[in-house]
User: What shape does this take?
Amino acid sequence: EGKEWPAYGPDLEELRRYTYAFYGGAMPVAVSAPARVRFEGADIKANKAVWKPPRGAGTGERWLKARRSSKAQLRRRALHIDPLLTCLCDLRDLGPQPEKRPFCVVGVTMEDIYSAPSDLFVAGMAAGVSHVAGFSLLRYHPHIRMSPGHWWGY
Assistant: This one.
């Protein structure tokens, strides 16, 4: 089973308040129960991860495309953004009645994400028509130091 939101991640309540203020208080902003992503386990191949949605989300576990340096080295890993956006679409669309659905669903993670095989990482991506977006906050951690000359070696 995956972990809850990591202690080294930003305070989600502060992000909620910032988002509420950004929209001028014109719409409610809520933090949902976390989905979990599992990279480890006998059933998981090196290029996969498992998405486990929050309870009551109306959708089951899904395989995600992932990459990592090696199966033994789990520290350097990243999730492909497209399957994540699909999972976020499910959370939005399979929720309550259409008139009670959120305007948008924004997922945040403390894992790297990527879009193309050549990407080291991307900060985030949206599927605007679907009203979903996913963002990685990992590279904004205050204790990560990256050299301008060797930015890939963190």
